[in-house]
Predict the 3D structure of the following.
Amino acid sequence: MTELDQPTTLTLRSIAPSVYLPAMVYEIGNGATAPVIALTALHLGASPSAAGFMVALLGVGQVLGDIPASAVADRIGDRHAMVLAAGLATVGLLGCFLAPNLLVLGLALLLIGSANSTFYLARQSYLTEVAPVELRARALSTLGGSHRIGLFIGPFVGAAAISLTDLRAAYVVAMVTAVSAGVVLLVVPDVALPAGHPATVRGGVTSRKMLADHRRLFATLGLAILAVGAVRAARQTVLPLWAEHLGLGAERTSLIFGIAGAVDMALFYPAGKLMDRYGRLAVALPSMTILGAAMMALPLTSGAISLTVVAMVMSFGNGIGSGIMMTLGADAAPAVGRIKFLGIWRVLSDSGNAAGPVVMSVVASAATLAIGIVSIGSAGLLAAAALAAWVPRYSRFATPRAMAARRGAG
């Protein structure tokens, strides 16, 4: 019997209360605060560029927190690490709420970013351990989907709170959701490891040794993942910039974002099912090809309708790739020291998320906005080529042929 044919004793429904519910609740808070961080900085006297830097500190904190997060989760366990992360996030959000100056706000945002890295890594590690191989992609893509749903709901909840009081009410919403996520984690137990499923071996492996032992993987497939993260993150930046270039107002731009977000959010489960059935490349290649090509076509749009169409195509490409980075990390991770491996993996993906908008902005400043958008879109096509070359080397579930062969062997 092969890995793909192991009896499945775990279902997505059985892990929803302990995995997807706290992830979605936690992410509602992030969605509520995302639109107000820059505004808070502006109210504290920051310039527009400094306000943008404050927003970037969340990503910086996440990158800086990935390796320490793996050490914490390795030592105290995934669930306890998530509860700790929820507590740290609450402290950071309180700092944002009370911040009298930019220094306090910046430190609070770094703390929230570090807490986010711990929360995300611990859930990914748990799912990688307990989900049967034939369900792995769906389990992880649904985790990505729960994040998307929370981020979609959050701005509406935050806007309602702000309308009743003031701007900083969004941080109160996020504090409530962080505490609520922690309570769910304390009250609802994790599903036990399925019978016969190998457990992660914790301790005994340092991040330095893990990096040295898998340096070829991180230098090849890891760079492809970095590029994927960069293109995906830049998608959130290029849309409002080009909408402003076209002279569209904030209301129409927000509507376009909402429509595109709905397309993205609806595709996480089909993405996971395709990966489990036909292999990882069946989703990874079309995802990055469509996203990259659509982004390159963005400067050809001339109005709200054409921009909406391209935005929906971009979201389709991004949506069908839901969970792909977590799934590839789970495929490549060893059982011994798995969480240390995933910590390094997340450093690469989070670094791409942080670098994508910066690279696009630098190119746009040196040339034009259109050239900046096309350059980051072309990186999506390069990422697709890199995935095609390296995913089969490091994932046993890369292609339809590999999946069929494993089933046939069973």
